[in-house]
Design goal:
By secondary structure, the protein is of the alpha/beta class. Helix content is 30%, strand content 22%. The protein starts with 8 loop residues before the first helix and ends in a 14-residue tail after the last helix. Bound molecules: zinc ion (ZN). Zinc ion (ZN) binds next to loops.
Length: 466
Amino acid sequence: MIIQLRRSPLIAAVIVAANLFAIGQSAKKSAIDERNVRAEMQFLAGDALQGRGSGTQFERIAAEYIGSQFMQSGLEPAGENGSDGRPTFVQTVTINRNSFAGNPSVKVGGSSFEHGKEMVVMRANSGAATGPLQKFAQGEKPKDGAAVFVRPKQEDDPRAVMQSLQSLLSSGASIVMVEETPQWRANWANLAGRRIGFTGGAAKPAIMVILSLETAAVVEKMENGTKVEFGGTLAPVQTSLTWNAIGKLPGSDKRLASEVVVLSSHLDHLGVRENNPGADKIFNGADDDASGSVAVMELARVLASGKRPMRTVYFVCFGSEEAGGYGSNYFADNLPFPKEKFVANLQFEMIGRPDAKVKPGELWLTGYERSNLGPELAKRGARLVQDPHPEENFFQRSDNYTLARRGIVAHTVSSFGLHTDYHRASDELKTIDFVHMTRSIDSMVKPVKWLLNSNFRPAWVPGKQP
Ligand SMILES: [Zn+2]
């Protein structure tokens, strides 16, 4: 242990004075007021909002609140018309949920396998799918619409297996059947007990099922090309609602005003869970994602005051991200402007606490290496770096991905250091580092202004577009 140095009172006084000077300086420079950040966080992440559960009335209140903040900042409403016929700052989204009345099944040749017995359905986006059996060999491409059968090595990392199954579906397979691994077997009862449902009408079926060892052995003996059918009786469609808060700042430049940048977050979280162990049942979601929503509100306040940016900005806080990205999917499918005018999207997620994996004051951008947007913003002063947790696949885990999958250059700004309060009731206001959060939002003001006042159009790095 090294010796602790003693300071003379005079030197200590000089140090204190120097620190005060530094604090005074940075407070003067900040475009973002910590008091606003605290005020908005307290409302969104306080117990009164009951964790803003996806699709609940509390989510709706969060959307109305954010909308009224947008209004106060001087944005134009971009939501639906209210009862007085005037446009509002809230967009109501209808979710149509389908579910199977009984257990769906997979039929291969003459054999039938039922969910919960011989197999379990991992995901289904459609009530029916069919395709010719393709017993998968390493390095092969799935045939379009095929029902691909995969036997992973028992020692393969389950996450890597899931990813490769996902990529089979995105490159053309309609059904993927995978032999169980010990991890899935250990979780079998849980998977078997799930009620299988899906929303909306998918363009193309994408079904993923796990076959028990015995079932996989049966399928292995079938000929390639054997007809595979997935399906079951559907229950009546159930509809529910979710809410986006949405406001717009029209661009000031004749030519550039038609181009749009979207700054976004998700306003929902996990709500109240009565079966949560311990006394606290409210999942406040202070970091996830009240913090990002406050960033969007504060950027709206700053950008709407003073000189108006040349490009148009949409500020959108999405509903039901936690339940499957329903708010952002609706937005992406019903863009309020031509898609070719969509320049970029920055989503703000979990910036309430610093990440020890990067330098103090730094934020990271998911998928930084996938486009030239992050590097270009960094050149303009953004303290943005590469995501230090690539194994977490954060690029795919927020609303930015909904847009990125449709070709839009879209990333998430974050400083989530994998803290253990993630998706727990303990993600609360008292864990928020307001100095870090205020500085983080402030650090994005100048670079975002630059983006809004330039004709730079970000592009994907070749081969890196999702
Ligand atoms: Zn979350």
